[in-house]
Design brief:
The structure holds three protein chains of three kinds. Chain A is 73% helix and 1% strand. By secondary structure, chain A is an all-alpha fold. Chain A has a two-stranded antiparallel ribbon with strand order 1-2. In chain A, a hairpin with a 2-residue loop joins strand 1 and strand 2. By secondary structure, chain B is of the alpha/beta class. Chain B has a domain of 130 residues: P-loop containing nucleotide triphosphate hydrolases (Rossmann fold). Chain B has eleven helices and ten strands. Chain B starts with a strand and ends with a helix. The mean pLDDT of chain B is 85. In chain C, strand 1 and strand 2 form a beta hairpin. In chain C, helix 1 crosses helix 9, helix 2 packs parallel to helix 4 and helix 5 packs across helix 6. The longest helix of chain C is centred in the N-terminal third of the chain and has 31 residues. Classes of the chains: A mainly alpha, B alpha/beta, C mainly alpha. At the A-C interface, helix 7, helix 13 and helix 15 of A face helix 4, helix 9 and helix 11 of C.
Chain lengths: 368, 254, 287
Amino acid sequence: MKNIKSMLENMTIDKYIALFIFIGLLILPLLSSRYSVQIFGKYITYTILALGLDILWGSTGLMNLGFAIFFGLGSYIFGISMAIQKGLPAFMSFGGLTELPWLYVPLQSPAVAALLCVVIPGLVALILGYFVFTSKIKGVFYSIITLAFVALFELFITDQQIYTGGASGVNGIPTGLMTLRLFGSKISIFDWYYIAFASLVVIYMFCLWLNHSRFGKIIHSIRDNEMRVQFLGYNPAVFKIAIFTISAAIAGFAGLLYVPMSSFVSIENSGVAFSTMIIIWLAVGGRGNLTGAMAGALLVSFLQNILSGYFGGMWQVVLGVGLILIVMVLPKGLIGSLIDWQYMRRIHGRQHAKSGTDPVPPAQKVEV
Amino acid sequence: MYLEVKHLTVDFNGFLAVHDVSLGIEKGETRVIIGPNGAGKTTIIDMITGKTKPTQGEILLNGVNIAGRESYDISNTYGIGRKFQGPNVFDEMSVYENLEVALSGHTSLWQAFTYRRTRAVDARLEEILSQINLTEQRDMLPRFLSHGQRQWLEMGMILAQNPAIITLDEPAAGMTDDETFKTGEMIKSVMKDKTVIVVEHDMDFIKQIAKTVTVLNQGEILAEGTYEEVSHNAEVIRVYLKTDDTEEEEAGSV
Amino acid sequence: MGLLASQVINGLTNTSILFLVAVGLVVIFGLLDVVNMAHGEFIMFGAYSAVVCVNTLHLPFAAAVLIAALFTALVGSVVERFIIQRLYGKVAETLLGTFALSYIFQQLVRTIFGPEDQLMALPLDTTLHFGSIVVPVYNVVLIVVSVIVLAGTLLLLIKTKFGMQLRANVQNRTMVQCLGVNSARIDNLTFSYGCALAGLAGALIAPVKSVTPDMGVTYVVDSFMVVVLGGLNSIFGSFMGSFVVSESSTVMAGYMSEITAKLLIFIVIIGVIRFRPQGLFFNKDKR
C-alpha cells in the first residue's frame, strides 16, 4: 500500500496526461460521427507510430529521418493484400500484368499479410541496423543515411507503378476489407477503431515497461554516454540493432492499422515528407517520455486538419513558425517542458519540507 | 606474470605517443604509473582497455594477447574495468541505478530483458554503496553530488563490474585533501584483492597507495621501483619531479 | 560507342549540376557543422529569383544569376542571425529549425507563384556538334561555371584573408576572438556564402530543370550524399564526389532504369562511408 502511495506521489505529469488521452480516445466514438471515428482512428495509428520513433529517438538517441518507411511497408503490405482479395487491382492489370506476381501470392491470406506487416519492417531494420551500427557511422551521419534510404524508397515505389500503384497509390482496398471476418462477422469502422485503441494501450504499456527495464536503462545510457557503456562491457551495436528492430516492428503494425482507417495507401504516408512530420510530432510533444510522442502526434495532426481548413496551404507556415518557436523556447517539447516544470516545483517543495532524497526525475535528453 | 605489456608502441600519424614500453604486473599488485602530462600514461591505459589499438607490441593477460580487441569485449571477457579521468557517470540515473547498470553478469541482450532486482542484487549494491561512502545518496542524481563523490560513484561502478583488473585514471583529481585520503583508503581496502593500475600525479596520494611505481616520460619508461627508490632517482627528479613546484622542495630536501 | 561518349558528356553536365548544388552544403555542413535541411529551399529561391528576373523583369541571364546569388545570401544572413546562431552545437535543434524553415519557404513560394513548373528559356539555345555527338552549349556553360566556382571557392578559402579567418574560426574560435576578430560575423558570412552558392546553383539550373516550390527536396538528399562521400570539409572532395556519383549514374542509366542506377550508387556510397566514414577526401588538417 505504501508503495502505491509513493508511486502516486511520485507519478509524473506525463502519466496523468497519458491517462487523459486514453480516456478521451476511449469515449470519443460514443460522441461523434462515423467520419470522426475514422479520422481519429487514423490519428491513433499515428500515435502508435510516434511511440515507435520515441523509443528509437527519445530513449536511445537515434534520430531517424526516414522512419515512415516502416509505416509505409506495413501499410503497403496490408493494403496490397486487401486490394488483391478479389482479383487483380486496376493498377496491376492496366500495367499489363495478367496474374499475381509471385511475391504477392502469400498476401492473399490476410493473416499472413498481417504477420508480414510486423516481420518485414523488423527484418529490414535488422539488416540496415546491422550494417550501420557495427560501423563507425555515428550521429548525424546515421540520420543522413536514414533520409537517403527513405528518399530511395519513395523513388522505388513511384517507379514500380505496376506493382505498387506508383504515385497514384493502391486502390481497391475497401473491397478487400469487406471480405474480412472477425469471429464470423464483418469488421466495422468502430471495430477497427477499438482494435487500434486497444493496440495503442498495449503498445504504450510495452514501451513503458521497456523504458523501465534494464534494457531501457542500457539504451538510455547509450544515448547519454555511449563510451562509458562500452567500458562496462556492453556492445552498443547489439542494443541499437535490437531497439531499431523493435521500433520498426511497431511502426509496421501501425501501418497495418492505417489501412482500414484510410482505405487508401500511397507514398504520401511512406516517404520523406511524412518522415519529417513524425519527427515534428516528437519535437512538439517531447521525446523520451512516451506521452510527448502521443500528444505531439495527436495535437499536430488535429491542428493540421483544422487549420488547413481555414488557412489552406498557409497552414505550413504556421507549423513552421510554431516549430521554430518550440525549438528555441521549449526544446524539450510541450510535455517534456511540463515534466521539467513539475520536477522543479517538487525540488523546491522538498527543500521546504524535511530534507529527504530528491525525487528521481525522468530521464530526458535533448540532443540527437 | 599476470599482466604483461611487451614492446608496446602506438603511432599517431608519426607521433609516437608510446614507444617500446614493456611492463610486468603481478596478480593483486597495485601499480602506479606517473609521468608528466603527455607522457603517454592514459594512452597505455587506452590500449589495455581496448579504446586504442596499438601499432606494435602485445598485451598479455595470463598469456593471452588482448591487444586490439574491442573495449566491451575486454571488459566482459577479460574482466578489466576502467575509471576515466574526470568522473564519467550517467547523469540521468540515480546513484543506485548507475551501480545497477554496471553490475557484472548482465551485459548480454537476453540478460537485459530477463534481469530482476533480486534481494541478492540489492544486498550487493548496498554493500558497494557503503564501500564508496554513498549509502545516503542512493537515490540522488549525480549532478547533486560533489565532484569527489562523483569520482567515488564511478569507482563504485567499477566495483560493481567485479573485474579482476582495475585501471584508475587520476582518481584523486579535483578532490579535497580529505576526499583524497578517503579515496586512498578505499583503494587499499576495497580493492585489495584486485590488480590495480593507477595513473596519478598527486605524490602524497601515491605514497599512500603504491607498492611499485613506474615512471613514464615522452612515451618511454624512465624508471621503475618503490616510491622511495623512484623519488630518489636522479633522472626522475630531473625530468619529472622538478616540473611540479611542491615536489621541488621535497626533492631539494633529499 | 557514340552512346557511351554522349553519356560521359552528359555525366559531366550532371556532375557540374550536382557539384554546384552540393558545394553550398559543404561550406555550411563541412565548415560550420550546421545540418541545413533548408539547403534545397535556398536552391529553390535562387531558381525563382532567376525566373522573376528573366521572365518578369526582362534582365539578362547573367545579371539574373548574380541577383539570385545575392538575394539568397541576404536571406541566409538573416536566417543565420536570428535562428541558426542560437542553435550552434545543437544538432537536433538545428535540424528541426531548418526543417521548419523549409516548410515556411516552400509554402510562401507556393502561395505567391503557385505549384506549377516555372518555365524559363535557355539563355543560349545553340548546340555543338562533335561528329555524331550533340552537346547543347548551355551544358558547356554549366561545366565551365562549376569549374570556376570550384577554383574560386578554393582560392577564397586558401588565399584570401577572409578565407583564412574562416578556417581559423572553424578550428579555434576562442583564439580567433582573442585576435580581435568577430567570430560571429565570420559565421554569418560563411553561412551567407554557402547560401549564395546554393542560390547561384538554383539560378543556373532553372533553364534546364523543373522549377517548382518543392524542387529542393531531391537536391538536399543528393547534396548530403555527395558531401558525405567526398569528405565533410573538402571542396575538392565534393567535386570528386559529384563526379563519381553523376558519371556512374548517367552511364549506368543508359543500360538500366534510372532508379536502379540510383539505388546501386546509394549502396556503393553507404559501403564507402561504412568503411571510411570521413569520406574519400577528408582533410585532416582542417579539423
